[in-house]
Write a structure and sequence with these properties.
This protein has about 170 residues and is α+β, with helices and mostly antiparallel strands. It contains five helices and four strands, in the order ββαβαβααα.
Length: about 170
Amino acid sequence: MRVNHEYGRGGAVAYLAAYDVHRARVFGRCEASTGIAPFMALVEQVMTTEPYASARRVFWIVDNGSSHRGKKAIDRLTKAFPNAVMVHTPVHASWTNQIEIFFSIVQRKVVSPNDFTDLTQVRDRLRAFEDHYNAAAQPFQWRFTTSDLDDLLARLDRYTSADRHQESSIALAA
């Protein structure tokens, strides 16, 4: 990592990306900043590509970032692409969004340590990793079923019932 008295901060790159959970495919772009225009450029990049352009519906799962927050963002997306449906994750729950998992991988595998000499090097490394990821990634296969959830909830209920019974027995003994 190059940090000394002559270190010059070279600026920053905004990396925006969309993730197709069915195909394990990332669509990314480097921008000078974030905002409505860069976000909509990403949307256009995806939505003008097949199979998304002709799909009946394409769900965009987004956090509550300022470029895609609220009713105005939903209306803007729907006006530009009527088959696009924006879904916001709950506040502080962006970890439920699959692209956030990809971003955490990018942070660990691509960006850190940040020993870049210029922004072109950052962009090149991001694009190369995106190409590598798209060539190697497989869709995530959930193995946790609704039956598994029912079993887990029943076990938790038995466990908490046993705790309540034990607490009441202790209280009676006192």
